Every structure is written in C-alpha cells, then in structure tokens.
Amino acid sequence: MRFHAAKVIFIPAFLCVFFLNSNVHAFWIWTPETNKWVNPKYAVKDTPSEQLDVAKALFDQKEYDSAIKEFNKLVKHYPRSREAAEAQYYIGVSQEAIGNYPESFKAYQVVIDKYPFSERAAEIVDKQFNMAVNLMEGKYSHSKWVQVVSGSDYQVIEIFRQVIKNAPYGKHAGEAQYKIGLYLKEKRLYEEARDEFEKTINDYPKSDWAKAAKYQIALTDSIRGKDIQRDQQTTSAAVNEFKEFIEEHPDTELSQKAKEHVATLREKEAENHFQIAQFYIKQKNYKAAKVYFNDIINDYNDTIWAKRALEMIQQLGKEK
Q1: Which domains does the chain have, with CATH numbers?
Q2: pLDDT tens digits along 293-315
Q3: Residues 135, 156: contact at Cβ < 8 Å?
Q4: Is 93 exposed, middle or buried (0-12, 13-18, 19+ CB in 10 A)?
Q5: Counting Cβ atoms within 10 Å, is residue 295 exposed (0-12), middle (13-18) or buried (19+)?
Q6: What percent of the chain has pLDDT over 90?
Q7: Nearest-5° Cα angle at 248, 244 to 251
Q8: Does the global pTM surpass 0.85?
Q9: Is residue 284 predicted with pLDDT exceeding 60?
Q10: Which residues contact 76 (CB under 8 A, 6 or more apart)?
Q11: pLDDT 10s digits, 22-66
C-alpha cells in the first residue's frame, strides 16, 4: 500500500467499539503524510496495474458502481499512467452497462480528449456513433437520455457532430453528417436539413452517403413544395433534382423511387395549373384560362390532368 512512514497505533477500546459499530471491517492506519486515519481497504493500490486489476475484477463481477469508484481512483492518483486511459474507458463501459448513457458518452469523450493515442479511440467512436443512432431511433426513450435531450448539450445532432470531430475521415463521418440532415428533415426543418445534405455531398463526395444525400435533397424540396401553397418553383426544382439523380444513378434502387416521385410531382404541378385555370374561369377571363389548360396539355400530357384540360377547352369553345 502507498503509506510512507506509516505507523500502526494501538486504538483504545472505546475507539474499537466505535469503529466496529461503524461497519469497519479492516484496521486503520495513521499516516503522518495526510495527518489522517486511513483504512487500507479504501486506499489506492501501490501501482496503477494493481489498481486496474482490482477495478476490473469488480467490473467482471458486474459490480459496476464499485468498479467505477476504483477506476476513478486510478485516474485520479495515476493520471499519467498507461492504465489511466484504460480505466477511463472502462468508466464509460460501466456507465453504459447500467444504462447511464449521458455519463457514458462523456466518459468516452474524456479518453479521446485526454488520451488521443489510446488504442481504444476507434472503438469509442463506434460506440458514440451507435449511441447517436439509438437515440435518434428512440431506443433510449425510457432512459436518462430523455432528460438529456430536453435540456443538455448532448443532443442527437451534437453527438453526431462530435463523432465527425473525433474522426473526420473515419468510417462513420459521412453517415453521421447524412443522419444530421435526416434528423432535421424528420423534425420538418427542411431548409436546415437541405444544408446538411449539401454538406454531406461537399465533404464526402465519393461516399455512398453523398448519393443518398442528393436523393434526400430532391425529396426535401418535394416536401417543401407540398407545404407551400402553389410554390411551383420549389416543386419544379425537386423534379429537376430527381431527374438529375436518375441520370447519374440509373441502376440504383433509389432511381426507381425517384421516378415515382417525379410522376407524383408532375401530377401536382399539373393540378396547380388546372386550379389556376379554374380561377380565371370564375373571373370570366377565359383567354387566360385557356393558356393554362394548353400548358397542361403540352407540358403534362402524361398526367390525368391533360385529359381534363382538353375537356375544359372543348367546353369553353361550346359556351362561346
């Protein structure tokens, strides 16, 4: 034990009774260095490797709370030792094992920040990424993450950003950036989502996530077009983006979905033209109405509205 110049002193009978009544199961030693009575049971071991062995033994027995205390002792008393990084890592693993994910994430991050050359770095980034994905998918809905998301800096987006910061060229970086956009899209923050998808394309242009991001940009614009009344510009942009995606990736599964989106958006565009034409009919501006009906026939002849537009032109001709 680390007790320099320690002296064993006989304890009077009344003190023995006191210690026994206080659930003390080991003798106490007076240490002149600290001027305190110390119980060796709770003291740090003489070497970091010994301390690590004690802590890992508790961890293996799944006594995680006790293990965390022993790992913390090692980090506190031997901060520059090789074992300190390992102890800090196991603090994160222990916190994760008991479901305390916010503290686990923080403990893992300490390893990255204080011990950047740790062999655990890649493994930790994997764990943090998986935490972010699980949080995004609602798998921590009954854990302490609920409190974290409502009021802490460690929200879904921030965790993904930390993964990217920890390993900007790692295997999770592109996907993490893409999922930030996906998360924002799910929250109906379409403009912000679009920016993040564009960042995915710009920062990771050769990854599969760039391809997926391009598709999501078109999809996001198509959704925005539905939310904004008569916003032909947004809808048209979405159609063009989907078409561009199909040309660049003709053989992918997403291309078939893109074609379906194009067809749906063209129906929407044609319908908007038809409604505008009907508005002009109510205003008795038949000339303007015919312009829109003709646009439908010429530009959207593959939609159901082309036939209806032709019928309306014929009907207007009869009414004259």
Answers
A1: 1-43 (no CATH), 44-167 (1.25.40.10)
A2: 888 888 888 888 888 888 888 88
A3: yes
A4: buried
A5: middle
A6: 42
A7: 120
A8: no
A9: yes
A10: 44
A11: 454 456 565 565 555 555 666 889 899 999 999 999 999 999 999
CB atoms within 10 A of CB 264: 15
Helix (H) or strand (E) holding 38, with range, is: strand 36-38
* Amino acid occupying residue 23: N
Q: What whole-number distance in Å separates Cα of residue 219 and Cα of residue 224?
A: 9
Which residue type, as a one-letter code, is found at position 60? D
User: In this structure, what token pair is assigned to residue 80?
Assistant: 């520059």
Q: How far apart are CA 109 and CA 130, in angstroms?
A: 14
- Round the average pLDDT of the chain to a whole number and report it: 81
Rounded distance between C-alpha atoms, residue 185 and residue 180, angstroms: 9
Tokens standing for residue 42: 């709770």
Hey, what are 60's tokens?
Answer: 């293996």
What is the residue whose two structure tokens read 């303007």? 288
